[in-house]
Amino acid sequence: MKKEWFFDRFCGMQIVAYAEDGKVVEVGAERELPALAIGNIYKGRVANIVTGMQAAFIACGLEKNCYLPLDEGAAVFSTYDGRLQAQSSLSLKEGDEVLVQLVKLPRGNKGAKVTCDLSFVGKNLIYLPKTDFLGISRKITDVQMRENLLAEAEKLRTEGEGFIVRTAASAATRRHLKTESEYLRRVYRATVEQAASAPAGTAVYREYELPFKVMRDSLGGVGKIYVGDADLYEKVLRLVRMRSDFSEKNVILHKGMRTMLTEYGLAEQIYTLTDPRVELEGGGELVIDRTEAMTVIDVNTAKFTGESDLESTVYETNLLAAKEIAHQVRLRNIGGIVAVDFIDMAEEEHRQAVEDALAKALSEDRAKCRVLPMNELCVTLFTRKRTANEVGTVMLKPCPHCTRQGYVYSELFMAMRLRAEIAECFAGGYRAVILELNRGVMEAILKRHYLTSEAEGAWRGRRVYMIPHRTYHEEQYTIRGDNNPVLTLPDDAQILY
Description:
Layout (H helix, E strand, L loop, with lengths): L2 E8 L2 E8 L2 E9 L9 E10 L4 E5 L6 E4 L11 E4 L12 E8 L8 E3 L4 E2 L3 E4 L4 E4 L6 H14 L5 E4 L8 H24 L4 E4 L4 H8 L6 E4 L2 H11 L10 E3 L6 H4 L3 H5 L5 E3 L5 E6 L4 E6 L9 H23 L3 E6 L6 H15 L6 E3 L7 E6 L6 H5 E3 L8 E3 L1 H17 L4 E7 H9 L4 H5 L6 E7 L7 E6 L11 E2 L2
Parallel strand pairs: 1-15, 12-13, 15-16, 19-20, 25-26
Antiparallel strand pairs: 1-2, 2-3, 4-5, 4-8, 4-14, 5-6, 7-12, 8-9, 10-11, 11-13, 17-18, 18-19, 20-22, 21-22, 23-24, 25-27, 26-28
Helix pairs in contact: 7-8, 10-11
């Protein structure tokens, strides 16, 4: 199986895609720094205490105050096997300054969730400077290896601090573990020193940018890395040179006029992530609906008619759906609670088989998933650990036309699509591109400089004319290439930068 990673940056966004035999399996997208990211540490101030909720709300300089459970202890580490000492509830009062770390991103009307149990993530270890905990990944199953790694981690820690041994540590030497533990301690000390003089509401530590988190955690068995941006290529090379398991010869800079994602057939696959409907093999379909509290997935037979009786048709559709659901939640990076409404099945044996198929498919996900038993209505709940932004939060925005109940393409997503099509015109030999589009999208592209780097780099010497169309919705546009030396354009046309 051919396994490849694709890294790119454009329109103020970083994007990574992992493909197996040309099929996109994972996608990550983040706005460039200073973006919110799980793992960021802030010097916050206690805005208020809500005794009934056993929670404090912390002003961290974000749009909304952050939620801090006072009785959580070190629950964030309880997903690892290990020994956790008893933790007492936090004792805070309004006005106190405190270091907190982001563990859940804001969503809808909810602010971010934070913890005082700081952690610093390396390739092999997670360092817990203020938590007396020694843990190990459950994916390391060899009993002797677990004992040896825990013994090494025990030697590395001092009183009151802890370590979690990550899955990658199974291939690490004792020297690697010691070097990494010392580095993580230095990072923590530097964070504390910066916080001492920083005002409340300041980010004093930021988690690595998206491509570097991938480089740190996820390159096992990968054949090649393709990079679509020259600056990012140099950074990736520097990281690869620090690894002994990957050759820099396998890091390839894309130099074509077409965008990298288009060149390798990934762009259209990524665009489909904005569509709530997913077709299943044979004609069935999934409908994926994001709500503030959870994600709901409905399974429909649609055009699938089967070859025998109704029960068999439903069963076959549900089996296909179970595998595709696991693929879609990984692909879209859906986290939190997911409710799946399978098509009703009469036979208990079929219900159990579908539940088992879903659990098996989710077990291949790098993010931790937990599946609950299917009930009599053929509804199954499962949880998936939220590790970063869902791709849809970058590509979609609340619809302004339906009291914000639905979603439309974001200006960032439109810029991404237009960038690819403009590049396609230039690759076809045109020297000028004429683009008609929604006025609001055009103004956002110009104001936010989404395409500045392309205009000043790969597209230098070529022209892009943008014409606002008064009746087009956000997702509508027309685009064409032109080589005429003299163009006739309306008065409100604007050249791109």
